[in-house]
Each structure stands twice: as C-alpha cells, then as structure tokens.
Amino acid sequence: MVEANGLMKGPTTRLFEKVARWIGLSPNAGPVLAALFIEHYESGERLSSDDICQLTGYSRANAGLIVSQLEALGVIDGQRDYDQTGRGRKRVLYTVNGTFSDIFELGVISIQDRLNGMLKDLDTINNIDAGPKGSFAQLLKEVRKSVENRKEALQRSAEVSIR
Predict the structure, then answer these.
(1) Beta strand extents in the chain (DSSP E only)
(2) Span 97-121, mean pLDDT?
C-alpha cells in the first residue's frame, strides 16, 4: 500500500466525492474511490478492506457498504487473495475496473436514464384522462422541451467525445 502523502486529503477527496455523486452514489464513496485510484496509478496493487479502512478512516461496515456499491456498478473489481497464508476465509483485494473515463461515462449514462425516466413520466401524465388542460399543459410542454433538448445535447456531446 502506497502512502498517500496527503493526496487523500483536501482537493483530491473533494474531486472524488464529486465523481461519486456524478455516478449516483453518496459523496462518502469519494474517499474509497480516491484510495483505489491513487493505489492503482501509484503502484498497480490492490487494496484490502483493512487498507481501505486505514486510508479513509471508515469503519469496516461503512467501507464494506461502499465497496459493495462500487462492485455492483462495475467500478471496482474484487479478487480473493490466494497468496494469503493461514486458516479461514481469504481476504478480498480490490482495484479499479477500467479508467477514469469509463467511470465518467457511468455518470453520463445515469443522466440519460434519468432524462428518459422523466420523458416516460411526461407521457404517462399526458395519457391520463385525455391529457392535462390549460396552464398545466403549457408547463408540461416546457418541461418536455427542456428535457428533450438536454437529452439531445448530451447525446451530441457523447458522440463528439467518442470520436
């Protein structure tokens, strides 16, 4: 485990807290992401749950919950440590799965999903009792236009970044 030399404090932690929110997690996942990315780029080594707890100051329960969420999203990968000697369960070692760009893309996908959900809700509202009337109908029209414009801009932006 590479000592973070202050990298786990201040701006780095704040950056990864924002990344955590971007992909739909609590900002509490930020320090865990920061620790895993720093370790990945500094030494290429994996971190155990104990290492993550030591670097972040989190309890085992809190770190375990965040690790589970990150694994479920495919952001990190856990692997049993078969080199570990002794009896009992082998510890699990974690590392980031992919690049920062891959994780950033999760945020874009999350926003696209939310926009699609909003459009479905608008369709449902329009279909109830032959649709809304008056000023409420105008409000829904403005909301739909705003959501569709944002969705199109996001898709154009994603197409440009792929090139």
Answers:
(1) 47-48, 76-80, 92-96
(2) 88
Q: What is the pTM of this model?
A: 0.72
Q: Cα 110–152–127 angle (5° rounding)? A: 80
At which of 98, 117, 152 does a domain end? 98
**Total structural domains within the chain:** 2
Q: Which residues pair with 9 in a beta bridge?
A: none
Residue type, 82: Y
Same domain, 18 and 74: yes
111-125: pLDDT as tens digits: 889 899 999 998 888
63 close to 48: Cβ distance less than 8 angstroms = no
Is residue 39 within 8 Å of residue 47, measured between CB atoms? yes
